[in-house]
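To: structure desk
From: M.T.
Subject: fold request, one chain
Message: Could you run this one when you get a chance? Sequence is below, nothing fancy, just the single chain.
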Amino acid sequence: MAKSVSALVVATGSGAQLVSERPKPIHLLCGRPMLAWVLEAISAAGIRQAAIVTGPDGEWISKRIMDSPPVKLTTRFIEQPKPRGTAEAALIGMSGFDDFDDDGDLLLVPADMPLLTGTVLETVLSAHRESGAACTVVTTTRVEAAGTPRIVRDRQNRPAGISVSNIDHGADAPSVESPVGVYVVRRGLLSPAIRRTLPDPGTGRHLLRDVPGVLADSGHMVATLELATNAFAEVDTRLHLAEAEAALRDRINTHWMERGVTMIDPSRTRIDATVALAPDVTLFPSVSLSGNTTVAEGCDIGPDAHLDQCTVGARSTIRSTTAQLATIGEQCIVGPYAALRPGAELPDRTVTGPFYAAEA
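Reply: Done. Structure tokens follow.
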């Protein structure tokens, strides 16, 4: 019988590193909060319940996420009032589960990894189950620098914990096996292990990266899984945010091209994750589709068209147009240089001509 698996997401990051008052987990990427991308990956991996630990802005985060709740995933938000470390956050998060299966597995992920996919998480869970380990640490190869965490192994080459380098090797820095911040732990072992962690000397906080070492010291098997993928890229700065946006945009564009949408220049086509497109739609350069925009079959959109939360009927053509909360009927020709304001409705077969402006 397969073990049960739940997810615990640490979403305690503030917007400080992004120079923002908005909590980091709800910064938008392709029209969707960063945390929502993580929850989508968890759901796609077949996990059906998740506890999300937030910082003091928990109400702001939960409201934004539940505006469009994840599909097939039961979520519960728990607040960590003060930033006392990821280990304490996980301990608090354990209260977010109604049932308690000691032998089940718990997937721990941070909220700032929006490039995670269900396929990657399925690989992690499968490897954990096959190894029979009490804890699996997902790792990657990094160049060692001061502050880089790395896997420590014992004389039998078994993972024995995680240490942090205090040495700056400069140009001669070696490559090391480094944890990415994603763990799978047997649920019944996590709380006791967290209580045995020591505070970080620099911050005084209890950190999840110390849990594998505690479990190894107690005689439990710890395994590592090294994966070479950008799925574990963390978003800590505005530059990271832009890089994640670009990667997700490429993913979205590929998704629609595989389903019959033509993009003349994908690098200049921006589609939010919330947009729906029918087959045989053609998108010309400098098209931006956002919100809950839907475009029916056979439409030509662009160049230079910006549609936000609009509905476009079949076989319509829209050139150099800006529209928000507008409804465009079938076989319409809109633009160039048209502006449709919120609430505007164009009946079927409307031809606007250039410089057209429509009010509600």
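Reply (cont.): The CA atoms of residues 259 and 279 lie 6 Å apart. Let me know if you need anything else for the meeting.
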